[in-house]
Amino acid sequence: MMRHLRPLGLVFLLLSSPAASSAEVGWELVLAGGRVLDPETNLDAVRWIGIHEGRIGEISETPLVGIEVIDVSGLVVAPGFIDLHIHGQEPRSYDYLARDGVTSALELEAGVHHLDGFLARREGRARIHFGASAGHIPARAYVFDGVGLEHFLTARAMERGLRLLWTGFRMWAFPAPKYGHVVADREHRDRIVAALAEELDQGAIGIGMGLAYTPGADGPEITAVFELAAERGVPCFVHLPAQDGPLDMAPLETVLGFARQTGAALHVVHVNSSSQDAVAAYLKRIEEVRSEGMDVTVEAYPYTAGSTAIESALFDEGWREKRETDYGDLQWAATGERLTEESFARYRKTGGTVIIHFMKPEMVATAISHPLTMIASDGMPMLDVSPHPRGAGTRARVLAEYVRERGTLDLMSAMRKMSLDPARRLEAFVPAMRNKGRIRVGADADLVVFDPATVRDRATFEDPHQPSEGIPHVLVGGTFVVRDDALVEGVAPGQALRASH
Ligand SMILES: [Zn+2]
Fold first, then answer.
1. Measured between alpha carbons, how far is 420 from 418 in angstroms, rounded to an integer?
2. Is residue 286 included in any domain, yes or no?
3. Which residues, 6+ apart, have CB-to-CB distance to 139 below 8 Å?
4. Contact 109, 85 (CB under 8 A)
5. How far is CA 382 from CA 138, 454, 467, 469, in A?
6. Residue 482: beta bridge partners?
């Protein structure tokens, strides 16, 4: 008998007395005998999980009957991973993320403009859940450059294409974008804030800010944006302003100042790349302000290179000294080549994605292992010839390197950093997050099944288009999106995740 044909009343009866009734009719799907890890309750034990209508219906110490029963003995069953910082929001990136155990992909740092369009274009077509913040950079691009395309990276790609097409007339036809460097007067500031407010009305998940990319954003503008966040009860997800040197604490102190002054919550993105040699001091400072009652959280990715736009303000005069890097530390994503002074100058004019090899392994290890740090990939679209591997391997790399090889993280802490903590960061204003990031009856069946002995990332800087391995099954809302180590074709259970205010 098909469970989904049963009357609703009976289903409720089943859910309320699961032990007796599931034995009679069985669940739609049973994950049998896996090592279930729930970071909310610290459950770490062999269990049978019964799944019904996209949710977890029962968690049992003894075998359950199901229409379909999948033997997952010897494997870990955990809540699907939630990525708070993923720029790759196209089907190919979702494929790599799913193979890496991700069930929710959120673009919270750069954010978007025209959230409704962004979500509508993915609804019914996405392998995993998706959502975005209201982007301060795209709002500036909209106000100053008239670039109204929904996703900042799409806008950038389009601009790059046009520039290449018109290369001879470039400076005349497409002057350098103004979003980064122009200081807003009162009217422009009001328009930026109004644009962000409109996105929040549409369900944007907080406000994303890339202050290193917008040196033109001054105190009054940043204050106005933080005030909006405070008013709406949402965090600002902030890429800190650039450091003046590898030990500079000022960027963190400045942004903590805005948060304290306005009462807005703050999430510091990729602390590994934003703090360099001061990473331990940054994390200590965040711990201090949290103990004073400030709502500040932090994330990191497990790689020693960053990746960004070569035409952005990050490469304004003085970048080599500030980050103690040189041309040869830059890798051009379109070809994989290392740059020289000459090729840097050439590509800076046309624009494009560059990978920056500049972090010491100890900085990254400190960031990843710290109890406060969530794991977020900052992955770029997987469309370049040579994109940063973090878009494909972040989670598996944490499990392989930090849990298994170095032993600096236990498995439960890793689960918490990759699922529960991100869900908790958002659940006050994104209702769907209350049922994600944990394994309990009634929670969404967004689940990852992996082998802790073999899980590993395969994507490298030389060969990034390699999905992670040792993650045989991934379910989104009870639907397999990865099964037996392969993508399932033709499924799109991913849903739009929205804030409600
Ligand atoms: Zn980013």
1. 7
2. yes
3. 113, 192, 195, 196, 199
4. yes
5. 21, 24, 11, 18
6. 474, 487
Q: Could you give the CA distance from residue 345 to residue 82 in angstroms, rounded to a whole number?
A: 38
Per the CB < 8 A criterion, the answer to whether 474 and 106 are in contact is: no
- Per DSSP, the three-state class of 177 is coil
Q: Are the beta carbons of 240 and 286 closer than 8 angstroms?
A: no
Residue 308 alpha carbon to ligand 1 centre in Å = 8
CA 70 / ligand 1 centre spacing (Å): 37
> Mean pLDDT in the chain?
91
pTM of the model: 0.91
Q: Looking at residue 215, what DSSP letter applies?
A: T
CA gap 421, 423 in Å, rounded: 5
Query: Are the C-beta atoms of residues 495 and 54 closer than 8 Å to each other?
Result: no
Distance 129 CA to ligand 1 centre (A): 19
Burial 173-183 (b: 16+ CB within 10 A, else e): ebeebebbbbe
Where does 70-169 have alpha helices with state H? 91-99, 115-120, 136-145, 152-165
Q: Calculate how far, in angstroms, residue 378's C-alpha sits from the geometric centre of ligand 1.
A: 5
Q: What is the reported pLDDT for 351?
A: 86
As a whole number, mean pLDDT of residues 179-204 equals 96
User: From the CA of 142, how far away is ligand 1's center (Å)?
Assistant: 19
Q: How far is the CA of 155 from the centre of ligand 1 (A)?
A: 15
Residue 295 lies in a domain: yes
Q: Are residues 361 and 481 in the same domain?
A: no
The model's pLDDT over 76-106, given as tens digits with 9 standing for 90+, comes to 999 999 999 999 999 999 999 999 999 999 9
Cα distance between residue 381 and residue 86, in whole Å? 9
Tell me the CA–centroid distance for residue 152 and ligand 1, in Å. 11
Cα 267 from Cα 276, distance rounded (Å): 18
* 364 shares a domain with 336: yes
With tokens 């966040």, the residue in question is 229
The CA distance from 492 to 500, in Å, is 24
How far apart CA 234 and CA 208 sit, in angstroms, is 11
We report the CATH number of the domain holding residue 8 as 2.30.40.10
Residue 77 pairs in a beta bridge with 36, 449
Tell me how far the alpha carbon of residue 245 lies from the centroid of ligand 1, in angstroms: 20
Question: Kind of pairing, strands 296-300 and 373-375?
Answer: parallel
Q: Hey, what are 486's tokens?
A: 């392969």
Q: How far apart are the C-alpha atoms of 497 and 343, rounded to whole Å?
A: 41
One domain, residues 22 and 110: no
Instruction: Give the total residue count for the chain.
Output: 501
**DSSP code at position 62:** S
| Three-state SS at 461 | coil
Q: Which domain holds residue 444?
A: 3-80+440-487
Token digits for 324? 């103690």
